[in-house]
Structures are given as C-alpha cells and as structure tokens.
Amino acid sequence: MKKILQIVDIYDWAIDELAKHVVEYNPHFEWKRLAVHPKGLQRGEIDLEPIRKAIEWADIVDAQYWRTLSQLAEMIPELKEKIVCLTHHNEKNLLSEDWSYVDLHFATTKKSFEILSDKYDSKKIKIIHNSYDPYRFIFNDNYPPKNDKPTIGYVGRIVPWKGLKEILRACTELDYSCLLMGKMDSRIYWDSIPEKDKECIDWSFFECPNEDVPNFYNEIDIYVGNSGSGRETGPLG
Predict the structure, then answer these.
(1) What pLDDT, in 10s, does the model give residues 122-136?
(2) Sorting pLDDT into bands at 50, 70 and 90, what band is 188?
(3) Contact indicator for 205, 177 with CB cutoff of 8 Å
(4) Beta strands of the chain (E only): which ranges?
(5) For position 17, what pLDDT does the model report?
(6) What span, in angstroms and rounded, lies between the C-alpha atoms of 203 and 190?
(7) Which pairing describes strands 177-181 and 222-223: parallel, antiparallel, or unpaired?
(8) Is 227 helix (H, G, I), strand (E, B) or coil?
C-alpha cells in the first residue's frame, strides 16, 4: 500500500476542504496529513522534525499549497527525493518557483494547465477541476433576503490584496451593508480603513464554523470579489 503524506496550509480552510476529500475517496492508500503554514515556516515558528519524519515515512508527498512546498523543499532537501505531487489551487504563482523536482502537477483550471504546459512536460500535468457538494448549497427559494438594506457579501482574510477597503467605501457611499466572512490577518491594513466605513460591517458570520457557511450566502444580496489580481480562487466564492 502506497504511503502518502498530504500537506495543506491550514486545517478547515478552503484548500483543506478540497484536499481532505482526496483522502476520503482514496482509502486504498495509507495517508498522513499535516497543516504547515508558510508564514510559520518563514518566522521559524514550526518544528521541522515531525515534518521531516513524516516525509521519511512517505512514498509520495501530496503538496496542496505552493508556498509551503517551496519552503519545505529548501529546509528539508530530502523531500525532493520523494515522488512529489503539487496541486495548484490558484493561478498567481504558477511559475514563481523552480518546480523541476515535482513529478506531477494538478491544475484546477484550463488556464493553469496551459501556463504550466508551456514551461513543463505536459505529461506531468493533469487537469482536475474543483467540485462541490450539491446537497450542501441548496437553492435559495427566499432570494433576495429581506434585509433592511442591500447587503454585500465579502469572503476572505482581511489583507490588502483582497480589496476590502474599497468595498467598504462603496457600501458607505451607497448605504449598503457588508456581511463579512473570514478572519483578521493584517491589523495594519485593517487600521488603515476609515472608521466611518467600518460602520457598515455585519460581523454575524466572521470566523464562522464551516457548517454555517451556506447560511452566509443565503443572507447576502450579492457576492463581491475585489482582489488586486482581478480574479479570485482562494475562497472559491
């Protein structure tokens, strides 16, 4: 039985929600799972020894986040001696690293597949589109919701490149509400947002548990993604 080490960034976040189903639907392999956040590696906050032992145990390393893999490959060089698979959950950093040691790339979009194929052997690249549970997000018969005012839905961490500041300014100007689901990640960026624009925020679903996510979408009039890249794959909105 093949032994596979799956490495995600954070348990129960978007990538992990997809990755753990890979384990669930492939019980004929022996799995271990680790969550290793790249910022923790960068700050020296993560003990590398358990990771090193898990890599030694594995026949295959299933990396689910590009930045975690690139750092671990430098910190634990023996990782490159294993069969390494890398799933590209976003298109932003496809070519930012030297992936010559990766044996198999999984692209989740046609665009990612094309970009990777221009650089690497196309035989090493497979396209597997993201899926979803049709029984989890049920058709909303009560749309639009009966809110006191139009409600924008924002999904994601509070970081500069997600564009929350501009969304809140627009909500203030239009007298809309902003229902926010995510977590605080950049206090400096948060402090740069004018206090008057923060008054439109509804915190009801901030850091909500996974089972409450479908209810968030039932409470908004429209979902808005405003990432600086012009596309948004992180929250899978």
Answers:
(1) 999 999 988 777 788
(2) very high
(3) no
(4) 3-8, 30-35, 60-63, 83-88, 104-107, 125-127, 151-155, 177-181, 201-202, 222-223
(5) 87
(6) 14
(7) unpaired
(8) coil
The string of pLDDT tens digits covering residues 58-97 is 999 999 999 999 999 999 999 999 999 999 998 878 999 9
The residue among 114, 39, 120 whose CA lies nearest residue 84 is 120
pLDDT recorded at residue 233: 61
Burial class (CB in 10 A: 0-12, 13-18, 19+), 215: exposed
Q: Distance from CA of residue 125 to its chain's centroid?
A: 20
The angle at the Cα of 15, spanning 26 to 204, to the nearest 5 degrees, equals 125
State both tokens at 169. Answer: 């300014």
Which tokens go with 100? Answer: 């010559």
Residue found by looking up tokens 């509400």 in the block: 177
Q: How far is CA 152 from the centre of its chain?
A: 21
Residue 30 and residue 204: Cα distance in Å, rounded?
40
β-bridge mates for residue 179, sequence order: 153, 202
